[in-house]
Amino acid sequence: MVDLSAGKASETQTRKADHIRICLEENVQFHNISNGFEEYRFTHSCLPELNLSEIDISTCFFGKKLNAPLLISSMTGGTEVAKTINYRLAEVAQHHKLAMGVGSQRVIIEKPEVADTFAVRAIAPDILLFANIGAVQLNYNYGLSQCLKVVEILEADALILHLNPLQECIQAEGDTNFKGLLDKISLLCSEMPVPVIAKEVGNGISAPMAQQLIAAGVSAIDVAGAGGTSWAMVESERAENSKQRLLGKTFGDWGIPTATCITSIREVAPTFPLIASGGLRNGLEVAKALALGADLAGLALPFLQAATESVDAIHERVDLLMAEISTVLFCTGNANLSALRDSNCLQPKN
């Protein structure tokens, strides 16, 4: 097990350590909103005419082949605990050829000596790897040079710009000037040598907002919808006063369910690269996300829980996820992910 206690650290490092501890120890999941996937059901095929051992769940994203349509979503970095977690996750990602994102790398800019907590490329030389920084930092003296730096340090294949206005509202130290960001994102996309991914952090991206981000030049969207970890609730647990605590609780169930994000964005952008994350907890939900139109499915908390235990625990979680996805394909009569998307075998319950 990983020791979650935090020693002396910077404000940003302390916040990151708090986030890990709270996600693992406190009830900060959405209470009244689900990810929306329970509203859909697969049509069972009693005679699939397939051999389970031949089911193919591999895919390609940004030109890299993945053995499964799974993204180990952005979680952490900047502390010794985070280093252990990232290294364990990277080892498993390399073994299974999965995609992986790291947590916000802003801490590297503030404190370069913690760069090694993110340095997973030596462990995972072949994986599809995403750097990560908050889009709002473009309004706080960050620009192309800082974004290039976090990509270079990580040797990343793409850069995630995470969008978290609600979380910033709840944080005592939150950065809340989001004015004019779309133009800055557009400029950054035109200058970056790697693809830029726009990602929410658990409150979802609407279809109209997706259209604006696509027009601005992002190369992919990670919807990160409501239904999983509520970062308003997480920040409520970190609150320094009653106002912050109550504000976080009031908005603990704010957001667009993940399934709704996928279906609405697919109506306006049928083929644009789309990642589904936000409350996915098993391979059945992953398969539903893919059938609704996502290209990859990102999970965070299930991998975080396993990573605090051991590398073997992560391997077991990945093996189970892959078996669950394969079982869905087999029992719906689909030999691969393309067939699943084209089969119309996922229907609303009502």
UniProtKB/TrEMBL annotation:
Keyword set, alphabetical order: Cytoplasm, Flavoprotein, FMN, Isomerase, Isoprene biosynthesis, Magnesium, Metal-binding, NADP
Binding site for FMN: S73, S74, M75, T76, S104, N132, K199, T229, G279, L280, R281, A300, L301
GO MF annotations in UniProt: FMN binding; isopentenyl-diphosphate delta-isomerase activity; magnesium ion binding; NADPH binding; oxidoreductase activity
Cofactor(s) needed by this chain: FMN; NADPH; Mg(2+)
Ligand binding (substrate): R15, K16, S104, Q105, R106, Q167
Documented EC number(s): 5.3.3.2
GO cellular component, one term: cytoplasm
Function, as annotated: Involved in the biosynthesis of isoprenoids. Catalyzes the 1,3-allylic rearrangement of the homoallylic substrate isopentenyl (IPP) to its allylic isomer, dimethylallyl diphosphate (DMAPP).
Designated name of the protein: Isopentenyl-diphosphate delta-isomerase
Species name: Merismopedia glauca CCAP 1448/3
